[in-house]
């Protein structure tokens, strides 16, 4: 039986689109819900157009009460009998109170070769460090930011002419290949890391 996947995002949802379009045919998972903290997120409009259920949980009314925000997300997820959560550009840090019950069933894509450059501004930091290669990582989500077990990585060379934006564009191409490949394996119970050339 196919695993039911919820995809959480905050923006245009290009990784969500890559995941959704991969979940066809004999795929072991299917998209059950796209949830955003922003009603104007482009990914929400796209998911609706595909006939996928959507939910919006605006973080702003909750102010600094992250527990209340996360409780509302959890309440929105439950009716959909979600098996796997994929974070795809969800720009809110989730606390241990939310992550722990979902641990082992929640994955994220991060635009660096973890453990390098956890958090934000990964491409600028890679360029400032003089790195010869950059890339992206899919990992299990744990209570510690960007520290969960690595499920897959893809690499790109850093060019002498690169800016953070040009590097981000090339890494994003690899994200759209890596994330669907890892999700397929993860939904089948395969947690072995996948390293793309």
UniProtKB/TrEMBL annotation:
Enzyme class: transferase
Catalyzed reactions: N(1)-(5-phospho-beta-D-ribosyl)glycinamide + (6R)-10-formyltetrahydrofolate = N(2)-formyl-N(1)-(5-phospho-beta-D-ribosyl)glycinamide + (6S)-5,6,7,8-tetrahydrofolate + H(+)
A Gene Ontology biological process term: 'de novo' IMP biosynthetic process
Annotated site residues (Raises pKa of active site His) in this chain: 146
Domain Formyl transferase N-terminal: 3-183
Binding of (6R)-10-formyltetrahydrofolate, residues: 66, 108
Pfam family, any one: Formyl_trans_N
EC number, as in UniProt: 2.1.2.2
Gene3D superfamilies: Formyl transferase, N-terminal domain
Entry-linked CDD domains: FMT_core_GART
Superkingdom classification of source: Bacteria
Keywords noted in UniProt: Purine biosynthesis, Transferase
A single cellular component GO annotation: cytosol
Family the entry assigns: Belongs to the GART family.
HAMAP family for this protein: PurN
Function: Catalyzes the transfer of a formyl group from 10-formyltetrahydrofolate to 5-phospho-ribosyl-glycinamide (GAR), producing 5-phospho-ribosyl-N-formylglycinamide (FGAR) and tetrahydrofolate.
Entry protein name: Phosphoribosylglycinamide formyltransferase
Organism encoding this protein: Roseovarius mucosus
């Amino acid at each position: 039986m196919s695993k039911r996947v919820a995809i959480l995002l905050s923006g245009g949802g290009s990784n969500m689109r890559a995941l959704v379009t991969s979940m066809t045919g004999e795929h072991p998972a299917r998209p059950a819900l796209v949830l955003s903290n922003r009603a104007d997120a482009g990914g929400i409009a796209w998911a609706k157009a595909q006939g996928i259920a959507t939910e919006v949980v605006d973080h702003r009314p909750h102010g600094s009460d992250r527990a209340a925000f996360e409780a509302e997300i959890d309440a929105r997820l439950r009716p959909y009998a979600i098996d796997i959560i994929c974070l795809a550009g969800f720009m809110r840090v989730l606390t241990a109170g939310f992550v722990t019950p979902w641990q082992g069933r929640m994955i994220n894509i991060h635009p660096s070769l973890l453990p390098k450059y956890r958090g934000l501004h990964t491409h600028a930091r890679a360029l400032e460090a003089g790195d010869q290669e950059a890339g992206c990582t899919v990992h299990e989500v744990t209570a510690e930011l960007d520290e969960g077990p690595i499920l897959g990585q893809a690499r790109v060379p850093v060019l002498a002419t690169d800016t953070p934006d040009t590097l981000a564009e090339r890494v994003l191409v690899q994200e759209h290949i890596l994330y669907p490949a890892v999700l397929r394996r993860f939904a089948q119970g395969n947690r072995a890391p996948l390293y793309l050339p």
